[in-house]
Structures are given as C-alpha cells and as structure tokens.
Amino acid sequence: MLSPVQASTEATKPLYPGNFVVVNLQTMTLDLRNGTTTLSQFPIISKGRPGSYYETIGGAYENDYELRNHFSSIGHVYMPWSVHVFGNYFIHGVPYYPDGRKVSSTYSGGCLRLSDEDAQQVYDFVKTGTPIIITENKETDFAPIATSTDTISSMQMTRLMVATISLEVLTQDNAITDTDGETLTTRKTLLPRLLVDGDDTISRAFAASRGENVFVDYMNTKARALGLTNTVFTTVDTAATTTPQDQTRFMEYLAEYKSYLLDIGSSTQQ
Predict the structure, then answer these.
(1) Taking the complete model, does pTM exceed 0.90, yes or no?
(2) Is residue 52 in some structural domain?
(3) I need a surface site. Which of 94, 110, 238, 243 has the fewest CB within 10 A?
(4) Residue 13: what pLDDT?
(5) Are 31 and 122 contained in the same domain?
(6) In this structure, is residue 141 part of a structural domain?
C-alpha cells in the first residue's frame, strides 16, 4: 500500500461531495477520495489486455454490491474482496483457484486487480451507491453532456451498444446455439454478423440470454455511465435516439476502451 496522501486538497470543485473512487488506467493507480481530498492511493497490479475483447471498461459508475469472496464463473477462480463496478467487472484482490493456487497472469479478464491488503481497504471504503470513475485520461472525461433537443436516430449506435454490452456483461467464449437453433458457436463469433452484416437477429439472440428489458436497461445504464445524456435505447433492434455530440463521445469511448469492436465493425454504416 502507498502512504496516505495527507490533506491533498485541489483548487477545483470536487467531482462528488462525499466518498468516491478514481481509477487511472494510465498510471495504474486507484485513489480513495472524499471531496477534494485523496485519502489513500493504491497501485493496480493488472487490468484487461488493451485491444482485446476483455479490455477494462471506462466510465462513471456506482457500486451496487460487494462480495467478500466472489467466485468467477468466467475465470473459475475466487476473487477476494470483490467490489462490483458494472457487468462482468470488479475491483478485487489476487484471484486464486479452488485448490488455493494464486493466479499469476500479467493481465486480468478485465477486472482491476489489487493486492489483497489494498483490496480489503477498498472493500471497506465502498458502500452501495459509492461512485467509481475509471479513466485512461481525465477524471472528467465522462461528465454528462449538455442536454440537447438536436436529436437524431442511429441504428449504428444501437448495434455498437448491443455489441458493447455483449462484451461487458455476457460471456464471450462459452458455447451457445446459433440463431438457426442448431449450430453451436460462441458470442464472439457472432459479433461480425452484427457489426458488419447488420444482422439484428444477433442482437435479439444476445438480449434473450438476459431478457430484452434487462439487456436494454444495461444499454441505457452504460449510456449514462459515459455521460450520454441525450441517448435513449428502447429495444435492441431499433434505432437509438441520440445526438451528434453523444455519438462522438461514444465513438471516442470505443476507440479508447473497446477498439476490438471498431476493428470488427470498420465497415458498418449508420
């Protein structure tokens, strides 16, 4: 653990009046803040591999639950002192296999890995509703965009958000049944059909795994986490209501945190 920063008060207005967490993926540090004061700072041991489908997310979230020792159904490991951020993403200590062996990989499956001691302090600090900001750059990158009535419709926005939620909430590598009802495949192999071919049956198949209402709720929650004030998704296969400013912010997010999708969908059209 790094030494606590004593009363390091900035000359700016605090992002939040009470406790919150700031993660910087460039400096690989996690700060515990109260107002403008940094209470503690911890080094991040690992994050998701940049450019991969399990790259670590960015955005401004709120914790909704914590687990003393969460078992990952994706990695098949125990994750001590787990603080949930969004979808499949947690802040936690060093994972270990059921036989007790510690994971030694350089990259995580997208979660933010701390030492067990540091993770416990974060676990004790965070309560339900505590804001958690994850950024590659500035803490204000996901501040809400100003409200606008200059709205447009975008099917590209819907398809890219469906793909984003599929990466961040669903499991990519597990075998699933294709839309023909017979062929086994994985969600990862379905993404080109969604983003290149515009096959919206893929969106419906993704949504069916959670229920469409739940899946659309994830889409709108993600939009709010990115500060997309003017963006609304109603279904997984109809055009989103959005604005040019929101679209630009979303494409910037994908370029920075989910370039995997842009590489797949480079030929998509709005």
Answers:
(1) yes
(2) yes
(3) 238
(4) 77
(5) yes
(6) no
Whose structure tokens read 């990952």? 72
CB atoms within 10 A of CB 233: 23
Residue 8's pLDDT is 38
Quote the pLDDT of residue 12: 62
Distance of CA 185 to the CA centre of its chain: 24
Contact indicator for 230, 248 with CB cutoff of 8 Å: no
Q: What is the pLDDT of residue 1?
A: 40
Query: Is residue 104 located within the same domain as residue 190?
Result: no
Query: What's at 229, amino acid-wise?
Result: T
- Yes or no: say if 142 and 59 are a contact pair by the CB < 8 Å rule: yes
Q: How much is the pLDDT for 73?
A: 81
Residues 108 and 194 in one domain: no
Q: Which is it for the CA torsion 51, 52, 55, 58, positive or negative?
A: positive
Running DSSP on this structure, what letter comes out for residue 259?
Answer: H
C-alpha to C-alpha distance for 227 and 59, rounded to whole angstroms:
8
Q: Would you say residue 100 lies in a domain?
A: yes
Which pLDDT value is given to residue 9? 40
Q: By residue range, what is the domain housing residue 215?
A: 152-264
* HSE-up of residue 95 (Cα within 13 Å, Cβ side): 26
Residues in the chain: 270
Six-digit token pair at 203?
């969106």
Between β-strands 131-135 and 29-34, what pairing exists: parallel, antiparallel or unpaired?
Answer: unpaired
Asked if residue 144 is part of any domain, the answer here is no
Contact 168, 48 (CB under 8 A): no
According to the model, what pLDDT value does residue 269 have? Answer: 41
Q: List all residues 6 or more positions away from 14 whose beta carbon is below 8 Å from its beta carbon.
A: 33, 35, 36
Task: State which residues of the chain have pLDDT below 70.
Answer: 1-12, 265, 267-270
d(CA 252, CA 247): 9
